[in-house]
Amino acid sequence: MPDTTLALEGPVRAGVFLGLFAAMALWEAWTPRRRDTLRRGRWPHNIALIVVDSVALRLVLPLLAVEAALRAEAHGWGLLNLLDVPLWLALPVSVLALDLAIYAQHVAFHHVPVLWRLHRVHHTDTAVDVTTALRFHPVEIVLSMAIKMAVVIALGAPAVAVLVFEVLLNGAALFNHGNVALPARLDRSLRRVVVTPDMHRVHHSVHPHETNSNYGFALSWWDRMFGTYTAQPADGHTAMTLGLAVFRAPGDGRLDRLLIQPLHTEAPEQTPPPDSA
């Protein structure tokens, strides 16, 4: 099983990613929620950024999350391994715990100033679509993976659970960043469990109190549980301004500027306030 899980990781993740990316891109073209998405100006740079991120991960970290799980299992590290929890229980517990950890990490990246400088690269996209899910600074990606690996090892999550979670997280990010229209009734039903595009779009609002809400990536429960849920944007989905009040010049979305953006300061009043919900 360990060898099989590791061997399947690359093909499964790549296949799901490419399939969902293509499906979301077609869906956006067919029934876009908003008409302000300029693909030619943004897509090449957002897509190039994930290539840089992938290279950075492999250069900086000797192993990734699934490999960390296999190492923990081999040495008996982590709570679930110490308690010898059966796979049928360890799998859902691990997926839930990892999703909660990602929620907590997301909150931290908004409220710790040095981490916000990295994370704001994601938020300075002035339109939100499937490629926004790829727009993360490579240093944030490396830190995020290191945090995830630490949680995996401390928890003793099974490798197959980590693979399931990675696929779920990537798929959820592509879906909830989609510039797509869902019927209102379907959206209300889905967001009881998962983060929908309309729910996550609020998080990309130019208003700081909305930016500092709806942190969930896959499951919507954590925002409701911890009081960070905002149902709808104050300005409405079609009229709301996306992005931040800073870094809005046309050239700010270029790959080279995205990579050096964390070195630039921003006006304090434009920084999401650390005490907002």
Number of separate strands: 0
Q: What's the Cα radius of gyration?
A: 18 Å
Query: What portion of residues belong to β-strands?
Result: under 5%
Mean residue pLDDT:
92
Number of helices: 13
Low-confidence stretches: 268-277
Biggest pleated-sheet summary: none
Q: How much helix, percentage-wise, in residues?
A: 55-70%
Shape annotation = globular
The N- and C-terminal alpha carbons lie at a distance of 43 Å
**SSE-based structural type:** mainly alpha
Order of helices and strands: HHHHHHHHHHHHH
Explain this structure to me?
It holds the Pfam family FA_hydroxylase. The protein is mainly α. It has one domain. The chain has 13 helices and no strands. α2 crosses α7, α5 crosses α6 and α5 packs across α8. The protein is globular and about 55 Å long.
The gist of it:
This protein is 60% helix and 0% strand.
Q: Topology of this structure?
A:
Layout: H1 2-30, H2 39-60, H3 65-75, H4 79-82, H5 87-111, H6 113-123, H7 138-155, H8 159-176, H9 184-190, H10 197-203, H11 208-211, H12 221-225, H13 255-260
Characteristics:
iron ion binding, Sterol_Desaturase_Related, transmembrane helix, Fatty_acid_hydroxylase, mainly alpha, 277 residues, globular, transmembrane
